[in-house]
Design a protein that fits this description.
The protein is mainly alpha-helical. The protein folds into two domains: 201 residues, Up-down Bundle (Alpha-lytic protease prodomain-like); 80 residues, 2-Layer Sandwich (Alpha-Beta Plaits), CATH 3.30.70.1350. Helix content is 62%, strand content 10%. It has eight helices and three strands; from the N terminus they run αααααααββαβ. A three-stranded mixed β-sheet has the order 1-2-3. Helix 1 packs antiparallel against helix 4, helix 2 packs antiparallel against helix 3 and helix 2 packs antiparallel against helix 5.
Length: 304
């Protein structure tokens, strides 16, 4: 994940998110107007998907702004407002699931018979949508590896691009065969693409909110690195979790041998551990409790 831990990695990509929002809104207007003119459910479904994605990008931008301006710790929120990014991503996933359900219900109703579709304008609108989605994907590709919200926006735009392809195919089928049910089938395809992405995003959000260990941090490897430090003989109560994307944190009780008897020696151990975690595991915020051998016997055994 990213290296910017001061305000979350999403801040660095705010401009690109804004441009992606402009592109999404353009696609939304074009597809909504074309759907109204042609009666295409697939085009309307894709427009609804784009509306959800645009809402998600708006939430991402709002969360990044709140995180940047209100990210300083306070007496009640000791990590500031960094979690707003994660909450926004969760709401985005829920909106996508709701849209998928709406599309399925309306597409099934049209399978047995629906209005005739004007395939020509549908083809043109879907082509414009595909071009705009490809441009947005290029804008967001770099940030998708660093920020949870940017990744969510990237996946949504990718789904939009695939949705545009589905609409293009359905329009071609209608033009060449006259089978107007292809529009409803394309709508179901779009819904099938929305659900896995929404579930994946919600799963990632749940892992952060439940304070699960980051996927790219191997706890056993982390433990070995801590134990390899001079003077360290054991580590327990080791916890690693994520505040927001690009901001992993860690706490641990570190048992040292009798050679670490003065504050200066303990200071050297702490510096080594902090640098090791920052370099090898991208954990910039780490908290250690230095303990003499045997101290853990007097602690409650609830978090080991």
């Amino acid at each position: 994940m990213g290296q910017d831990h001061s305000h979350g990695t999403g801040v660095a990509h705010r401009g690109r998110l804004a441009l992606a929002l402009v592109l999404s809104l353009t696609v939304l207007v074009v597809e909504a107007v074309a759907a109204w003119i042609t009666g295409s459910l697939a085009l309307l479904a894709d427009a609804g998907h784009v509306l959800g994605d645009s809402f998600g990008i708006v939430m991402a931008l709002a969360a990044i702004t709140v995180s940047q301006r209100g990210g300083r710790p306070g007496s009640r929120r000791t990590f500031g407002y960094h979690r707003t990014e994660v909450i926004a991503a969760g709401l985005n996933g829920l909106v996508l699931l709701g849209l998928a359900g709406w599309v399925v219900v309306n597409a099934v109703r049209r399978l047995d018979g629906g209005p005739e579709i004007s395939a020509g304008p549908v083809l043109a609108a879907a082509g414009i949508g595909l071009a705009a989605n490809v441009a947005a994907l290029l804008l967001l590709r770099g940030g998708a590896r660093e920020s949870l919200n940017v990744r969510g926006a990237y996946l949504e735009v990718l789904g939009d691009a695939l949705g545009s392809v589905a609409v293009l195919v359905s329009a071609l089928v209608i033009l060449t065969t006259g089978w107007h049910a292809a529009d409803a089938v394309a709508s179901l395809v779009i819904a099938a693409m929305i659900v896995p992405r929404a579930v994946s995003l919600l799963r990632e959000v749940a892992e952060v909110l439940l304070e699960g260990s980051p996927r790219d941090v191997d706890l056993e490897d982390l433990r070995r690195h801590i134990l390899s430090a001079d003077g360290v003989i054991d580590v327990h109560d080791l916890h690693v979790w994520t505040i927001t994307s690009g901001m992993p944190v860690m706490s641990a009780h570190v048992v040292v041998d009798d050679s670490v008897t003065r504050m200066g020696e303990a200071h050297a151990v702490l510096d080594h551990l902090r640098d090791c975690l920052a370099d090898h595991f991208d954990v910039e915020h780490s908290t250690f409790q230095i303990e003499p051998d045997g101290h853990s016997d007097s602690e409650p055994n609830i978090h080991h």
